[in-house]
């Protein structure tokens, strides 16, 4: 059996690990934001701005956005292959929804870093 590590094709194990890893990161990010709301007596614009001015919070948020995009891409591929039988329609939907997911990452990048 030949394993080509340079291949862009995915397999089930890679999808499984990617979904679990992104889910863990997204859970940690959710707990972090929830913790911020629980320990901050009054959430104001200044508190929110101060939180997101921290470089680590920006990096964690960007990581969470990328994880959302990866999680969405794999999940949509699984759902679309199960429920959309037309290959052409499935390809169009997958392209559109994947582009939308990565568009959200781009917008998040602009919002977070002021690019």
How would you describe this protein?
It holds the Pfam family Sdh_cyt. It is a multi-pass membrane protein. Pathway: Carbohydrate metabolism; tricarboxylic acid cycle. It comes from Rheinheimera tilapiae. This is Succinate dehydrogenase hydrophobic membrane anchor subunit. By secondary structure, the chain is mainly alpha-helical. The protein has a single domain, classed as Fumarate reductase/succinate dehydrogenase, transmembrane subunit (3 helical TM bundles of succinate and fumarate reductases), CATH 1.20.1300.10. Helices cover 81% and strands 0% of the residues. Helix 1 crosses helix 3 and helix 3 runs antiparallel to helix 4. It is elongated and about 50 Å long. The mean pLDDT is 89.
């Amino acid at each position: 059996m030949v394993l080509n590590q340079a291949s862009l094709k995915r397999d089930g194990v890679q999808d499984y690990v990617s979904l679990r890893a992104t889910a863990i990161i997204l859970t940690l990010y959710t707990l972090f934001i929830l913790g911020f709301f629980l320990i901050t007596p009054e959430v104001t614009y200044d508190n929110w701005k101060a939180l997101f001015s921290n470089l680590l919070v920006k990096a964690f948020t960007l990581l969470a956005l990328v994880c959302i995009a990866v999680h969405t891409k794999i999940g949509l591929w699984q759902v679309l292959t199960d429920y959309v039988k037309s290959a052409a329609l499935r390809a169009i939907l997958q392209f559109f929804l994947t582009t939308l997911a990565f568009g959200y990452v781009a917008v998040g990048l602009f919002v977070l870093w002021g690019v």
